[in-house]
């Protein structure tokens, strides 16, 4: 997800998106541990998306 897309979401939507991304990340890690996935860079992009969403949530809590 891009930062501009994240800023447009509400706090509740960000929470649900964070949950979805964390589940996707866990699934990708599990699949990659069992047998190498086709595109291992997916793991990096999902992890960075999790960080972006979590950062936006914490920034909104501070305001």
Automatic annotation (TrEMBL):
<dbReference type="InterPro" id="IPR036049">
    <property type="entry name" value="Ribosomal_uL29_sf"/>
</dbReference>
<dbReference type="InterPro" id="IPR018254">
    <property type="entry name" value="Ribosomal_uL29_CS"/>
</dbReference>
<keyword id="KW-0689">Ribosomal protein</keyword>
<keyword id="KW-0687">Ribonucleoprotein</keyword>
<dbReference type="GO" id="GO:0005840">
    <property type="term" value="C:ribosome"/>
</dbReference>
<dbReference type="InterPro" id="IPR001854">
    <property type="entry name" value="Ribosomal_uL29"/>
</dbReference>
<protein>
    <recommendedName>
        <fullName>Large ribosomal subunit protein uL29</fullName>
    </recommendedName>
</protein>
<comment type="similarity">
    <text>Belongs to the universal ribosomal protein uL29 family.</text>
</comment>
<dbReference type="Pfam" id="PF00831">
    <property type="entry name" value="Ribosomal_L29"/>
</dbReference>
